[in-house]
Every structure is written in C-alpha cells, then in structure tokens.
UniProtKB/TrEMBL annotation:
<dbReference type="GO" id="GO:0016811">
    <property type="term" value="F:hydrolase activity, acting on carbon-nitrogen (but not peptide) bonds, in linear amides"/>
</dbReference>
<dbReference type="GO" id="GO:0016137">
    <property type="term" value="P:glycoside metabolic process"/>
</dbReference>
<protein>
    <submittedName>
        <fullName>LmbE family N-acetylglucosaminyl deacetylase</fullName>
    </submittedName>
</protein>
<dbReference type="Pfam" id="PF02585">
    <property type="entry name" value="PIG-L"/>
</dbReference>
<dbReference type="InterPro" id="IPR003737">
    <property type="entry name" value="GlcNAc_PI_deacetylase-related"/>
</dbReference>
<keyword id="KW-0862">Zinc</keyword>
<dbReference type="InterPro" id="IPR024078">
    <property type="entry name" value="LmbE-like_dom_sf"/>
</dbReference>
C-alpha cells in the first residue's frame, strides 16, 4: 500500500480485516486527546479489527473534563462521567483495555514529558499499528483540528519516530524492561483531505460505531443530529452505497526502511 498522499485518484478502499491480514497486524494502539475522539474517527474500524481478532488498546491523554454542555458542572464529576462513558463505548467495540493519562484538557502540548509517557505505553503494548489524530490542521473542517487533537498527533508521531525505537531515548524505560522496538504503521484520523490515502470499508459496523458514540451521552445535546451527520459522512467517504472511515496511512518502518533516512 502506498503511503504517498495527495494523489488525484480516490483513496484506496479496503477493509480493516484485509488490512490486518496484509500487514500481519495483531495489536493496535489508539490514542485520543479526549473521550470520544477515537470513536468519532475510527470506531467502525476498531470494531472491525476486534471482530477479526486484533487486540486493540485505547489511550486517552485527558479526562475530557473541560467538555460538555452543562455550564458550571464540577470538573471532577465530569471526568468520572466521561471515563465511564468511554469504557462503555470501548466495550461496545470489543476493546477491553483503556489507559487514562493526566494531561490537562484544553492545554495538551507535545512536551518531552508527554512523549515519554506515550513511548512507555507503546513499549508496553508493542503494536504494529498506532491510531492517532493527525498533527496537521484540516482547513476543510476546522472542528476536526482542536488544538488538543493536533498536540496529541504531534506527540504520538514524535514518539513513533524516533523515540520508541531509540534505545538511548528515555533510558529509564529500558532500565525498567521496556525495550525499544519499531512501530510499523500510523493510521491517522482527522487528516486534511489532501493527506487522505486510505478508506476502510466498515459496512456492517456503522450501528456499532453509533452505539459507541451514543455512550458519550454528556457530549451530545442533539444525539439524533449527531448520528445523521456521522452516517452521512461515512456514506460520502465510501462513495458506493456503504460506510467507510478515512485515514492518512503512514508506513514508518517497512522491511526495506533504512534507519535515519
């Protein structure tokens, strides 16, 4: 599969199961800045991955306690609510592990400290594929590019190369038995349209995606409108009567990749 974005032809369409088989994917690690980020961007694909036997782990950088539509709600209470919502959504997708970090909602920055936390998780899970928001701003729909999403994407990309594979980076991790390894691929959501080079056909999983999104009850003042918008977008991405999600697929380490080039 080509990792070259911006071609004049429509992005390649395949299924998550076929992608996993082609690239021998056993483990996927998905990052989001807030609860529901991963579900909006990739819930259909994640449901299809788990149905195909792929182990998926979710990692959220913040508790999402600065989101929602109830002014004055206690932040600690909202954090508890959103964690419960995310765990319910994850269960709907067949995901059994949700990792929560403690970055401040609305103020995520790709610091060396955050990159180190992400490297630790990557080395614990050792995935072949990492899902993350895209680090580039999408001007076609600015709502995709919340600053926390961009910062999450930048931190994940910095962790994926070179930090996670550099044995001299974060030596305390190696000392704790978390050895360096190479990430093979990135699957980036919320990409600018010129970067989209992969569509994953998730037809049959659209209702599961909606189940996951509905679990984030605190975030949807108009759940029906949200559902209609999501389904419309998935139909448009597919383009042939089904449902799909779109990504920027990046090969970080192929069999012929030379380190440093």
């Amino acid at each position: 599969m080509s990792a070259t974005p911006g071609s004049s032809t429509r992005a390649e369409l395949t299924t998550p199961a076929a992608l996993a088989a082609e690239h021998e994917v056993r483990r996927v690690l998905a990052f989001g800045a807030h609860p529901d980020d991963i579900d909006f961007g990739a819930a259909g694909s994640i449901a299809a991955f788990t149905a195909a036997g792929v182990q998926v782990t979710l990692c959220l950088l913040t508790a999402g306690d600065a989101g929602g539509f109830e002014p004055g709600r206690d932040g600690a209470e909202l954090a508890r609510v959103r964690e419960a919502e995310q765990r319910q959504a994850a269960a709907a997708l067949g995901v059994h592990e949700v990792i929560l970090l403690d970055e401040r909602d609305g103020f995520v920055a790709p610091t060396a400290e955050l990159v180190g936390k992400i490297v630790r998780i990557m080395r614990q899970v050792r995935p072949e594929v990492v899902v993350s928001p895209h680090p580039e701003r999408a001007w076609d729909r600015l709502q995709k590019s919340h600053p926390d999403h961009l910062a999450c994407g930048e931190a994940v990309v910095r962790a994926a190369y070179p930090s996670v594979e550099n044995p001299f980076a974060y030596p305390e991790l190696a000392a704790a038995g978390l050895e360096a390894f190479k990430i093979r691929h990135l699957l980036l959501t919320t990409a600018p349209q010129e970067r989209v080079n992969l569509r994953l056909d998730v037809s049959g999983q659209e209702s599961v995606k909606l189940d996951a999104l509905r679990a984030h009850f605190s975030q949807h003042p108009d759940a029906e409108r949200m559902q209609d918008f999501v389904l419309e977008q998935m139909r448009e991405i597919h383009g042939a009567g089904g449902f799909a999600e779109e990504f920027h697929w990046v090969t970080v380490n192929a069999p012929d990749t030379i380190s440093g080039f």
